[in-house]
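EI: anyone free to look at a 76-residue chain?
SC: sure, send it
EI:
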Amino acid sequence: MSLAEQLRQEGRQEGRQEGLIASKQQNIVEALEIRFGTVPEGLREEIELIGDPSKLTSLHRAAILCVDIESFAREL
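SC: here you go
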């Protein structure tokens, strides 16, 4: 595999990872909106700073199961 092909492959993998993270972040915000209405901008910003896919999966579950938005915020 040439260097150019390796770089393209790495770029694609990075793009997929970034897309996965953005999708998980959006799913969390959507779950919170469905359950509680408006999501405070500061909370949205905190979610957008998280780049760990497993942490985002855990937060998505918390968004579905938490009793209120304050208890979700404590999970961050």
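EI: The chain has four helices and no strands.
SC: 👍
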